[in-house]
User: Which sequence fits this backbone?
């Protein structure tokens, strides 16, 4: 008998931006009618890393910085699954940075959601790679994941939401899932998700965010123009949010799982390994060893 583990109550602080991300993922899965038994949520380390525990779906808690390799392995093992990797900026942009860049490059068919609060909230609020120089005693230049994603050919869907605008965040995640399921590619969504305990940036970010849809001439269908338009907004002192880039069909690169496993039936998790089905192959192998 297999026991079905029910979701547990959230352990997040009241007002945490991650609640908005959790609600957006649930709403998106329901809107697209993604079956629970075909959904896997891979969590990272930190407050945001426990998000899979609060959802009725398959969940996996990865090691620190190893969120994406686990998610990629699951997708390659069973391409029929809808795999959502969900973690924080400290997990994904620090120890997990190398995996982030290569996941972009490989264009694996999964959705990667990063909850960015510019701090390590679970370990008492140290500066994360995205923290500005004004945060505590940080003296380092903050990392911009969107610029990195735009500069690495591979991902066909790149967006940024804000927990303070749950409607937009939900729409972006829904479209990321739709892109992933219909067009088979890597979809990356960063969500500005304030930590109300150690870095409450709700007021600041509400004043600084700017939807790229309100920027005259912003073209999300052209990677180069999107990069230029995004950079201009950043250099003006604002934080770009919205759909940053979506590859046109003719420019969409083939995903890693499609190139390795053009037939999902040949994937490790779906291959028929019964004796009768493989008897001739086993016999050929034994004959070769004789």
Assistant:
């Amino acid at each position: 008998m297999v026991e079905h583990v029910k979701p547990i109550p959230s352990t997040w602080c009241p007002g945490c931006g991650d609640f908005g991300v959790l609600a957006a993922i649930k709403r998106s899965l329901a809107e697209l009618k993604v079956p629970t038994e075909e959904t896997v949520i891979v969590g990272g380390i930190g407050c945001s890393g426990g998000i899979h525990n609060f959802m009725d779906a398959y969940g996996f808690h990865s090691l620190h910085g190893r969120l994406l390799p686990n998610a990629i392995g699951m997708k390659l093992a069973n391409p029929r699954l809808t795999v959502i990797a969900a973690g924080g900026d400290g997990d994904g942009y620090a120890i997990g940075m190398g995996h982030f860049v290569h996941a972009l490059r490989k264009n694996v068919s999964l959705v990667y959601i990063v909850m960015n609060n510019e701090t390590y909230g679970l370990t008492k609020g140290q500066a994360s790679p995205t923290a500005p120089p004004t945060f505590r005693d940080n003296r380092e230049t903050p990392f911009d994941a969107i610029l990195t994603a735009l500069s690495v050919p591979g991902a066909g869907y790149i967006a940024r939401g804000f927990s303070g605008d749950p409607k937009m965040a939900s729409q972006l995640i829904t479209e990321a899932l739709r892109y992933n399921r219909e067009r088979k590619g890597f979809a990356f969504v960063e969500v500005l998700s304030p930590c109300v305990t150690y870095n409450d940036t709700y007021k600041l970010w509400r004043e600084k965010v700017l939807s790229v849809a309100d920027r005259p001439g912003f073209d999300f269908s052209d990677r180069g123009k999107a990069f230029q338009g995004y950079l201009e907004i950043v250099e003006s002192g604002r934080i770009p949010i919205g759909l940053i880039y979506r590859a046109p069909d003719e420019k969409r690169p083939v995903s890693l799982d499609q190139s390795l496993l053009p037939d999902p039936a040949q994937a490790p998790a779906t291959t028929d390994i019964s004796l009768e089905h493989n008897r001739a192959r086993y016999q050929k192998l034994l004959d070769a060893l004789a």
Q: What stands out?
A: DSSP finds ten helices and ten strands in the chain.
